[in-house]
Amino acid sequence: MVENGIVAAAMKVFARRGFAATRVEDVLDEAGVARRTFYRYFTSKEDVLAAVYELATGELLDALDEASESPVDPLAGLRAGVEVYLDFHVENAALLRVLVEQSVRSDSPLAGHRRRFRARVLKVLVRAAETRHVAPLDGFTYVGLLSALEGVALELLEGAASPGDVLRAKKAVHALVESGLLGR
């Protein structure tokens, strides 16, 4: 499908050049499509960036949902979800750096997408707590856990994270999640 080819090309260009330096022409060249074809599917560079964000976060949310639905131990599923989240960030660092930089700005076309993404991740946290029969927590506890996870992921994106850094980050987030959800 042409639209998917444009999105895949945009992912490569955004990862290589960053958002600000990328022009629609760069995406056209990478995708090997004409300007008219691009505009049949997207209205702007920002529009294709939103499609990239939805694709990246959609895959991540699917993995988190699957990992957190463990019938035996939902907390084990949540731990697996943390692993997926951090691994995903490290494996896609250049692209995610662009997506995160754009999505945290309140005036960005990605701001709404980020809010929806966070809401879905928060639901995973709440579901994990509920299935563990943990007393309902204050909503800010979940927000704090999610913000900690995002903060750790951002820290890993700042430089070339070594496997040891990623392992330490996972252990730290696991400890925060367990203490936050179980009140330890």
Radius of gyration: 18 Å
Number of helices: 9
Low-confidence stretches: none
Query: Which class of the largest domain in CATH terms?
Result: Mainly Alpha
Look at the helices and sheets and give the structural class: mainly alpha
Sketch the major β-sheet: none
Label the CATH architecture of the largest domain. Answer: Orthogonal Bundle
> Count of DSSP E strands?
0
**What number of structural domains do the residues give?**
2
Order of helices and strands: HHHHHHHHH
Helix content: over 70%
Care to give the gist of this entry?
By secondary structure, the chain is mainly alpha-helical.
What's the structural blueprint in terms of helices and strands?
Layout: H1 2-17, H2 24-31, H3 35-41, H4 45-68, H5 74-91, H6 93-103, H7 111-131, H8 139-158, H9 163-182
Helix pairs in contact: 1-2, 1-4, 1-6, 4-5, 4-7, 5-7, 5-8, 5-9, 6-8, 8-9
Give a description of the structure:
With 184 residues, the chain is mainly alpha-helical. It folds into 2 domains: 1-42, Arc Repressor Mutant, subunit A (Orthogonal Bundle); 45-182, Tetracycline Repressor, domain 2, CATH 1.10.357. It is 79% helix and 0% strand. The chain contains 9 helices and no strands. Helix 1 crosses helix 2 (24-31). The chain is elongated and about 55 Å long. It starts with a helix and ends with a helix. The mean pLDDT is 84.
Question: What are the main properties of this structure?
Answer:
184 residues; mainly alpha; Arc Repressor Mutant, subunit A; Tetracycline Repressor, domain 2; 2 domains; 9 helices
